[in-house]
Amino acid sequence: TNEIQLNNTQVNNTQDNVTFTQVDTRLNGVIIVLVRNSELHQLRKTMRSFEDRWNKMYNYPYVFLNDQNFTQEFKTMTTALTSAKTYYGLIPEYMWGYPPWIDQARAAETRKQMGFRHILYGDSESYRHMCRFNSGFFFRHELIEKYDYYWRLEPGVDYTCDIEYDTFKFIKENNITYGFTISLLELSDTIPTLWKTVIDFVYKYPQYIADNNFIRFISSDDMATYNGCHFWSNFEIGDLNFFRSEKYLKFFDFLDRAGGFYYERWGDAPIHSIALLLFLEKSKIHFFNDIGYSHPPFQHCPLNIEYHNSGRCFCDPANNFDDQLGSCMKDWLKT
Ligand code: GDP
Ligand code: MN
Question: Where in the sequence is the domain holding 93, given as residue range(s)?
Answer without folding.
Answer: 28-334
